[in-house]
């Protein structure tokens, strides 16, 4: 399977968020080429500012695997993780993080001065289907103006 294949699954999660009036970010966790968890933003639905797609997908992955560290996992998320999610990803020791669109306003890079906030062994891949993820975000905010 390719990164694009899995990012399409994360985009489907983001579309669920969009349909529910949430900021359209979606995430999945993959282990051994199998999706073990999914998440999308539920901040408004749960009235919880920590209910980001990554956090929901990570929690489900920890429960699925019965572990708090997931170095064998790949997290796919449609938009660059924020600082909070970057911290959770650091502590999870996730093996690889793949994201689509950069988040120039709220992405972790805004606060980290280009330092890597993730676990030192974590591989980071960005820009996978970034145009599609960015367009979904733009459509969401255009519809709200």
Task: Describe the model.
The chain has six helices and five strands; from the N terminus they run H-E-E-H-H-E-H-E-H-E-H. With 145 residues, the chain is α/β, with parallel strands linked by helices. Helix 1 runs parallel beside helix 6. The longest helix has 17 residues. The protein is globular and about 40 Å long.
Describe this structure in a few short sentences.
This protein is of the alpha/beta class and 145 residues long. The protein has helices at 3-19, 43-46, 53-65, 83-92, 109-112, 130-143, and strands spanning 26-31, 34-40, 74-79, 96-101, 123-126. The protein has a five-stranded mixed beta sheet with strand order 2-1-3-4-5.
The termini sit apart by 38 Å
Low-confidence stretches: none
Number of E-state strands:
5
Structural class designation: alpha/beta
Helicity, as a percent range: 40-55%
Beta content: 15-25%
Order of helices and strands: HEEHHEHEHEH
Q: Helix segment count?
A: 6
